[in-house]
Design goal:
Structural class of chain B: alpha+beta
Radius of gyration of chain B: 23 Å
Oligomer: heterodimer
Shape of chain A: globular
Radius of gyration of chain A: 20 Å
Helix content of chain A: over 70%
Distance between the termini of chain B: 28 Å
Strand content of chain B: 15-25%
Distance between the termini of chain A: 28 Å
Number of helices of chain B: 14
Strand content of chain A: under 5%
Shape of chain B: globular
Strand order of the largest sheet of chain B: 3-22-21-20-4-5-13
Chain lengths: ~325, ~475
């Protein structure tokens, strides 16, 4: 597979996953705000904080109200990670490698893009209840996954796409978990209060994990939620699960047996995965969840950069050839 | 009734005679169309626009902003061509491509036709599309023009004329193929009933042709595109997808030991055939335009060494120079000893003193074209232009006569077309596609381009034209 194509397919995977996550975050946060006790201000800033774009937001907006937040997260063209930006980039990457996609995948993705633009035209952020739009986008993207699942051959391209998909998802789940750090409780005594529970429930719901968690853990306790979202071996959005899948993709790409590593990306990935594999949730919380998550995100970034260097970068001898006798 | 107010206005109409009679091969379609309520017809047209958007069937320069991606408007009323009429076109086109190919082989090698004075030597050697590095070269199987899209028009009497031969990188076949899919949705029941010949095997034929250019069992084929910002990028990616071949840019390729490789995630993989959609002089900065970033350094050496096949061969452009075009009837006669089956539009070469004088005197009646421009640029339509335009073109011609030809203004034929409120005649041309590999094959269908503005003769997509599906019937 061409390096350039692999690069685009990888980012196609990441951007789509990002867009879908944003759609579900906004939907869940909106629901959460409806459950707040009367008189409490809606909290949208934590949601922006977890995307990592709070600084960009604060530079340009004075208020963190619902309209501004939804506009920024969903449609703002100057936010490179907004839902519309992500979908546009996903589609642009798809357009560049369209010959590698099935007709169905391309057309569905193009439709999602047109839907998202339609939302922009319809000024969804000004609506009293914008949830329908975000649910629609979320399902459209999941339909796209379904189509791909049943029609795309499991060759290199598939695994590059999945690799991007799982790395992005690991990152986003870690950010969801981190939201709890940013959400303000009115007072420290509120820990363990109904409001606190509402928050934890919202987190679980934002990764479609509420029912699964209930079955596995029953009671909603912070340690349980952290363990579930971070270390669970079976839940497809837990960080550990995503990293295991991403590691598997790397082995499929290199054709390696999966014992040890065959390139530097596999080494970084193996280290991080095994670290989580043997981690203990109580120790993580004791040492500071937020700090742990920060470090985790940095390592996921390192892995992504390493993927770029190992597979997408034009090789040195190639550049020499290209610039001969200029 | 749908057609009760239809007035063909003295032009040859593809559907109706001047007496208002429906032509035989259109009768079944007319009946079917009249059974569709007008409202539904407009709904079908509307959903066609939407389908084109959803399919990403867009053209034009793309800058990651909305508005710059446009669809080539597809009018759902097809243009229908009877089997017998098509047969004549088919053999005429085969004859033409065959002769042009022999011509190309000759002028880059023995130059017999120049020595015999049939075509003026200076005309060829002065053409900027005559590529010196190809002198003495013979491409695989002696085929130069593998893919041709020839533009034809019908005059007032209904005779077909060749308007130009596009031998370089003719565009539009993807629109033809995708339009057919869309129109099949609009009129699903008609295709069997009328006996419309299918076109969907074109990508298979294209791939077969490309693969036939090497001796390898399973050659690696790539489609070389200038990239995502090229106006025909949709077509490039579409054809690569349909053929299942790699879509490559110059940056994906490199040449080592006169062999062409593409950079993959694992290693370098050799490429055997390139369907290149990059212009000749951008193919290889070492041989041609040194500033070009689109091509591959060393590609031309690999080509001359026989390690890569290129379609179309570099250098074919000289044969679709509009001045050379005027000699095609003589070219056919010279190589095949046959009379041309398809006629040329009479053409005045401004380079020739007597022709030039005629053009300068009659510019208000003529269409003036640059000899190597395309896309409807650099032309003057005499009867539709101002006196200032005429004067400007007179100066242009006097300053560089070699660069201009002129032709009488033809009244192109019309086809019923959906306008804002009604079905009205609009002018069309016809672009069939011809493949030349082990044999010459004409795709039984064509891109019909339609001038959407009432009375306009300009059908180019870049000038506001649209398209129609072209139905070639079995008989």
């Amino acid at each position: 597979m061409l390096s350039r194509v692999a690069d685009s397919i990888y980012w196609l995977g990441r951007y789509l996953e990002r867009a879908e996550n944003y759609a579900r975050f906004i939907d869940v946060n909106y629901n959460l705000m409806l459950d707040l006790p009367p008189g409490m201000d809606e909290q949208w800033e934590p949601l922006i904080a977890v995307t990592g774009d709070l600084e960009n937001y604060k530079n340009r907006y004075t208020q963190s109200d619902r309209k501004n937040a939804i506009y920024f997260l969903a449609f703002d063209e100057e936010n490179p990670n907004s839902l519309l930006s992500s979908i546009t980039r996903a589609r642009e990457n798809a357009r560049v490698v369209r010959e590698n996609l099935t007709k169905e995948t391309w057309e569905k993705l193009n439709e999602v893009y047109l839907q998202a633009k339609q939302g922009y035209k319809a000024k969804i952020w000004k609506m009293d209840d914008p949830r329908g739009f975000f649910i629609h986008i979320k399902y459209s993207i999941q339909l796209l996954y379904g189509i791909a699942d049943n029609s795309v051959a499991r060759t290199e391209g598939w695994y590059f796409n999945k690799l991007g998909h799982y790395l992005e998802r690991a990152d986003k789940t870690s950010r969801v978990l981190d939201v709890k750090y940013h959400i303000l409780l009115p007072s420290p005594e509120e820990v363990g209060s109904p409001l606190d529970y509402l928050h934890w429930m919202a987190l679980l719901k934002s990764v479609s994990g509420f029912n699964t968690y209930r079955r596995a853990y029953g009671k909603i306790v912070p340690n349980g939620v952290v363990e579930f979202l971070m270390l669970d071996k079976y839940f497809p959005r837990s960080i550990f699960f995503c990293l295991t899948e991403a590691e598997e993709c790397l082995y499929k790409i290199s054709g390696y047996s999966g014992k040890g590593y065959s390139n530097s990306t596999e080494k970084l990935m193996g280290k991080l995965r095994s670290r989580l594999e043997y981690a203990d949730v109580n120790e993580i919380i004791k040492d500071g969840l937020h700090e742990y998550i920060d470090e985790l995100q940095a390592k996921i970034n390192d892995i992504s950069n390493s993927v770029h260097d190992n597979f997408f970068l034009i090789k040195d001898n190639f550049i020499q050839q290209q610039t001969i006798e200029e | 009734m749908l057609f009760s107010t239809y007035q063909s206005g003295g032009n040859y109409d593809e559907m109706f005679t001047t007496e208002g009679e429906c032509r035989d091969h259109y009768v079944a379609f007319k009946t079917a169309l009249e059974n569709i309520p007008k409202k539904k017809l407009y709904r079908l047209q509307h959903s066609t626009d939407k389908a084109q958007m959803a399919m990403g069937m867009t053209f034009n320069v793309y800058h990651d902003q909305e508005g710059l991606e446009k669809i080539l408007h597809l009018d759902i009323v097809p243009r229908i061509i009877s089997g017998s009429e098509w047969k004549k076109l088919e053999i005429g086109l085969e004859q033409r491509i065959c002769a042009l190919n022999l011509f190309l082989q000759d002028i880059y090698n023995d130059r017999k036709i120049l020595k015999d004075g049939i075509v003026p030597k200076e005309l060829i050697l002065s053409s900027k599309d005559y590529l010196e590095p190809l002198v003495g070269f013979t491409p695989p199987k002696s085929i130069w023009c593998h893919i041709t899209g020839t533009d034809l028009v019908r005059d007032q009497k209904g005779n077909f004329y060749v308007l130009e031969d596009n031998l370089r990188c003719p565009s539009g076949v993807s629109y033809l193929l995708e339009s057919r899919e869309i129109v099949k949705r609009a009129f699903p029941e008609l295709f069997n009933k009328l006996g419309v010949r299918p076109v969907s095997d074109y990508p298979i034929k294209l791939l077969n042709m490309l693969q036939s250019l090497t001796g390898k069992e399973r050659p690696t084929v790539g489609l070389l595109t200038p990239g995502v910002y090229n106006s025909a990028y949709f077509e490039h990616s579409y054809l690569a997808q349909q053929m299942g071949v790699e879509l490559v840019t110059g940056a994906d390729l490199l040449v080592q030991d006169k062999k062409v490789y593409m950079q993959t995630t694992k290693n370098l993989q050799q490429v055997d055939v390139l369907y290149r959609r990059v212009d000749d002089t951008f193919l290889d900065p070492l041989t041609f335009n040194p500033a070009s970033m689109l091509g591959v350094p060393g590609l031309f050496d690999a080509y001359k060494a026989g390690n890569i096949a290129l379609a179309n061969a570099p250098g074919t452009g000289v044969a679709d120079d509009k001045a050379v075009y005027s000699y095609v009837p003589q070219i056919i006669k010279y190589y095949l000893d046959q009379d041309p089956i398809l006629e040329n539009v009479p053409t005045y070469l401004c380079e020739q003193q007597d022709h030039r004088q005629y053009v300068l005197d009659n510019i208000h009646d003529l269409v003036v074209k640059e000899t190597n421009a395309a896309g409807g640029y650099g032309m003057l339509i005499g009867p539709k232009s101002t006196k200032q335009d005429h004067a400007r073109f007179r100066d242009l011609i006097k300053n560089n006569p070699r660069n201009y030809i002129a032709q009488p203004t033809l009244s192109l034929s019309t086809v019923p077309t959906i306008s804002d409120e009604n079905i009205e005649p609009r002018h069309v041309d016809l672009r069939p596609y011809i493949l030349y590999g082990d044999k010459i094959e004409v795709l039984p269908g064509a891109l019909t381009r339609v001038a959407l503005v009432k009375g306009s003769l300009v059908v180019n997509s870049s000038q506001g034209g649209g398209s129609k599906d072209t139905w070639v019937l079995y008989d």
